[in-house]
Specification:
Helix content is 47%, strand content 9%. With 825 residues, the chain is of the alpha/beta class. It folds into 5 domains: 182 residues, Rossmann fold, CATH 3.40.50.300; 192 residues, PCRA, domain 4 (Orthogonal Bundle); 31 residues, no CATH class; 62 residues, Arc Repressor Mutant, subunit A (Orthogonal Bundle), CATH 1.10.10; 192 residues, no CATH class. Strands 3-4-2-5-6-1-7 form a 7-stranded parallel beta sheet. It has a 4-stranded mixed beta sheet with strand order 11-12-13-14, with helices on both faces. It is globular, with a radius of gyration of 36 Å.
Length: 825
């Protein structure tokens, strides 16, 4: 640990004259911390006679705490400091220092944990020192981010993130709603990266226009002038979602991009430091808004640029340099503004572990000494001959950090606390601490006293904390006394964990009021309801709109037609083929929209899709025959009237198709429309229905056929009764898992045909991911209405509701007649 100090002392003694004066205080040897410090200072050769006194290595003066994550380290530190302030008489907050090798990581976490206690009895006054101006200033961060983007490929996410920064957003008069609209436009217009074809060429790739910013902006601006129904205009398809009030954010986007791309082109060429100083100051003025609160940060940028120009002038350095080199020149002026701010300014001091911080404190805490993070490792270049032949006084990051650790140990007067990530947050596996922490434990094991192996001491010395702060291990009577908490809310959480499990309360205490008995139910509304009954009642009856996950911006151009894009494009192609249109016209439209992979790859992918579409469209055409006129539907039932229209009618009956794989929702939609066709009794139309979907068969098609139903009106009436009930209480019906349960139960197979086996299979289906679309268990409406295990509560009821609402009963009630009709297929 002390190599750095040893080398420095060697250099001093060899090259200078000095006077030796004893200005130190001998540490006590009655505690583990004091004995450790004495052993370090005496270098194993203590003065005086007789053996040193034995000490208790677990007296609490040295504490090592293993946690699962950085945030848990800060939470544990908070409780440990509260315990010390309570136990050590006369200890004040300004006698405690917390040092960390990564303040940028821990700074926000410290504010989140310690700042959240403000206004409560457990609040600890504190200050965070050594944070750079950039980390505390939105203006400096915006300037640095601006230069990052200028040096980048202009990806969609990087440019949008820059635009979203407050200092830049205000410069272009953009509000939050405008940003959300722009985000949607970037996704839908196909923008991925690159300014234009010329910029792509400079990046070393094929100079195509699709998926560039210029291509997307042209689509948006053209969409404001004309609809996409007119087709591509000079190779660009107008984007339809631009009209009316959308002109304001579109103008802001165009202005922002014009300035940014102009700066990108103007700042690419090398120039002198003086020219860089002038041009970067101009870029700051063009892109970043400054108010009274941020004027100081603006001055910091201008001073850093001015100092760089002055230094170059004094050195008579007039050679042109790149933007990357100029950023290295001004970086110290932007990063070091807060070097000593907050240090020893009242309360606990949080600071970076750096030289000249070895001031004595009663309590010294070291945060984040995890393996691989401390000490820093030097990675010398292959041509660095100094690294090959190291001499005393040569700089080494590893030796510097090890010496800082040694100084921190010697600075502690009464307590030394160390935290690190010692358990995996994924599987709770043991993780080693920093090598310096292991060496510290070895040194404590070697202190005077009963001989003890370092591994055995580590098991007793290191406190391994639970994953959550509300673990009962902090509150039970027979706990480790070093595990404690001062947070009442966490104590309440621990009590809840230890309390007997009770069935979850129903989402509704009582059914909602009955809907209008004379209302008419739309056929499409009935189909949508059974697609997700939980969503239907929460959104329609209660007005609850649960936000969908935010779709991430994409930075790479499409390289294949897959997923949702394949379904949408395939559906459009099937329609065009059934109408007899040329697929080449569709190709030009899709290429102009940016949805196809670029160049020849897009054409190859498109041709392969066309072949699949051709097989599918031919199968649909063969099964349809002559189209018949649409049939209006009005069916009077006991509880309501069902109204709607059947459009896909042909001389062979009702024929539906979807260019997708077969799903439970498609089967259910076919079943409901088939019942409506049979119940309506439309003259001249055969009461048969077919559904054609994509498959991997040679024909490319899967079919579901339904024969006439005798009691179609009664079947529909039962579904309508469930619909009306589902407007008052949430129904535990989930199409995919309900179909799985009903079909397995109907099969009667020994392995999974019993109620228990069928429920197990349904649970697997409930939790499985359907081709990347997410599982039914992760649907936000399902989670809100039924909690974590809707399939496990077989006797689910709502007070005041007489109907049985179990998952099993509903699955059989809805899908049983359908499976009987298709023979269990």
């Amino acid at each position: 640990l002390g190599r750095l100090g040893h080398d420095f002392q060697w250099v001093l003694e060899r090259h200078s004259r000095y006077e030796d004066r004893p200005l130190y205080r001998d540490p006590t040897t009655r505690t583990a911390l004091g004995a450790l410090q004495a052993a370090i200072l005496d270098s194993g050769n203590p003065d005086g006679q007789g053996p040193p006194p034995a000490i208790d290595r677990l007296d609490g003066t040295v504490g090592v705490h293993s946690c699962h994550s950085p945030i848990r380290q800060v939470e544990v530190l908070r409780d440990q400091l509260l315990g010390l302030l309570h136990d050590i008489s006369g200890l004040s907050c300004d006698e405690i220092v917390v040092m960390t090798p990564n303040l940028e990581l821990f700074g926000p976490l410290i504010e989140a944990v310690f700042g959240a206690d403000r206004g409560t009895p457990r609040y600890i006054p504190h200050q965070i020192a050594d944070r750079s101006d950039r980390s505390e200033s939105a203006v400096l961060e915006a300037f640095q981010r601006l230069l990052d983007v200028i040096e980048s490929r202009m990806t969609a996410s990087a440019v949008f993130d820059l635009m979203s920064m407050d200092a830049i957003r205000r410069r272009f008069d953009l509000d939050q709603a405008g940003l959300e609209q722009i985000r949607s436009w970037i996704l839908d217009s196909g923008i991925r990266w690159g300014i234009d074809p010329e910029h792509r060429k400079r990046c070393g790739v094929e100079p195509f226009a699709e998926n560039t910013w210029r291509f997307g902006l042209d689509r948006l601006l053209l969409g404001y002038a004309m609809p996409s129904a007119f087709g591509p205009f000079r190779g660009v398809l107008p984007h339809d979602d631009v009209e009316g009030r959308a002109a304001a954010p579109l103008g802001c986007l165009a202005s922002f991009c014009d300035r940014l791309f102009t700066l990108k082109r103007s700042l690419e060429a090398p120039r002198t430091v003086e020219s860089w100083s002038r041009d970067l100051a101009g870029a700051f003025e063009q892109m970043i808004a400054v108010d009274e609160d941020s004027a100081v940060q603006q001055q910091t940028v201008l001073e850093a640029l001015s100092r760089a120009a002055s230094a170059a002038a004094q050195a008579r350095f007039e050679h042109p340099i790149s933007l990357a080199a100029m950023r290295k020149v001004i970086e110290p002026g932007l990063e070091s503004g807060g070097s000593a701010r907050g240090f020893l300014s009242g309360g606990i001091t949080f600071c970076e572990l750096r030289p000249m911080r070895s001031i004595p404190f009663k309590v010294v805490c070291l945060l984040g000494l995890s393996d691989g993070e401390f000490p820093r490792m030097s990675h010398p270049r292959g041509f660095d001959l100094m690294a090959i032949d190291r001499r005393p006084g040569d700089r080494s990051l590893k030796d510097e950090d090890r010496y800082l650790f040694l100084e921190a140990i010697l600075s502690a007067r009464e307590r030394l606390l160390i935290t690190y990530v010692g358990q995996s947050i994924r599987d709770n596996a043991r993780l080693p601490p920093s090598v310096v922490v292991s060496e510290l434990i070895d040194a404590i094991a070697a202190l005077p006293g009963e001989p003890e192996d370092a591994k055995d001491l580590e098991k007793r010395l290191v406190v391994r904390h639970p994953l959550q702060p509300f673990s009962p291990r902090y509150f039970v009577p027979d706990r480790d006394p070093r595990l404690f908490s001062f947070v009442r809310l966490d104590c309440a959480g621990a009590r809840s964990l230890l309390a007997p499990r009770r069935p979850a309360a129903p989402f509704l205490d009582s059914p909602l009021p009955e809907v209008d008995p004379d209302r008419s139910i739309e056929l499409d509304e009935l189909i949508r309801f059974f697609g997700n009954p939980a969503r239907a009642i929460l959104s329609t009856q209660l007005g609850l709109k649960l936000t969908d996950p935010v779709e991430l911006l994409i930075d790479r151009e499409p390289l294949a037609i897959d997923g949702l894009a394949r379904y949408e494009l395939g559906t459009r192609l099937v329609h065009e083929r059934l109408e007899g249109h040329d697929w080449r016209l569709v190709f030009e439209r899709e290429r102009a929209s940016g949805r196809l992979p670029p160049g020849a790859l897009g054409q190859v992918e498109y041709v392969q899709l066309v072949r699949e579409v051709d097989r599918f469209a031919q199968a649909v055409s063969r099964g349809r025959g002559t189209r018949l006129a649409a049939c209006p539907v009005r069916i009077a039932l006991d509880d309501a009237s069902l109204v709607g229209r059947l459009d896909d009618l042909f001389e062979g009956g009702q024929v539906l198709w979807r260019f997708s794989r077969i799903k439970a929702t498609l089967r259910l939609a076919l079943w409901i429309r088939h019942l409506a066709l049979n119940a309506a009794g439309s003259g001249g139309i055969p009461p048969r229905s077919r559904l054609l979907v994509r498959s991997d068969k040679v024909s490319g098609v899967d079919e579901v056929e339904l024969d006439p139903v005798d009691d179609a009106t009664g079947r529909l009436a039962d579904l309508v009764r469930l619909f009306l009930l589902g407007q008052r209480v949430p129904l535990p019906f989930f199409p995919e898992s309900s179909l799985e349960y009903a079909s397995r139960l109907r099969s009667g197979r020994p392995e999974d045909g019993s109620p228990h086996g069928a429920l197990a299979r349904a649970r697997q289906r409930f939790e499985s991911d359907f081709g990347g679309r997410g599982s039914e268990s992760t649907d936000p409406y399902v989670q809100k209405a039924f909690g974590v295990d809707p399939l496990g509560d077989a006797g689910r009821t709502v007070p005041g509701c007489a109907e049985a609402l179990s998952f099993e009963a509903l699955a059989v009630r809805v899908f049983g007649p359908f499976l009987e009709q298709v023979g269990g297929r």
